[in-house]
Amino acid sequence: NGVANALTGPIARGDVNTVKGHIELLSSDPDLIEFYKKLGREALNLSGVETTDPDAFVKLQSLLSAHSQK
After folding, report:
1. What does the pLDDT look like over 32-43, one tens digit per residue?
2. pTM, whole model, 2 decimals?
3. Which of 2, 50, 55, 62 shows its CA 20 to 30 Å from the CA of 16?
4. What Rg, from alpha-carbon coordinates, does the chain have?
5. What number of other Cβ atoms are within 10 A of residue 39's Cβ?
6. In terms of Cα–Cα distance, which of 37, 45, 5 is closest to 19?
7. Interacting residues of 16 by C-beta distance below 8 A, sequence separation 6+
8. CA dihedral 68, 42, 17, 36 (to 10 degrees)
9. Does the pLDDT at position 70 exceed 60?
10. Cα Dmax for the chain
């Protein structure tokens, strides 16, 4: 069914609050937070959230941007 259909988790669901919580919990480790964000951006690009929930897509994009703050 392809990679996009195989994705699960908060990014694939467009769950902004969970991703925000993950970022807050990981924020004390700069290397780990950047790794999480990079993987998150890749998952978001594959997820299809842009078409199913455009508002969540924009919010997740902002949270996962390379230089975003809490």
Report:
1. 999 999 999 999
2. 0.86
3. 2
4. 12
5. 12
6. 37
7. 56, 59, 60, 63
8. -60
9. no
10. 37
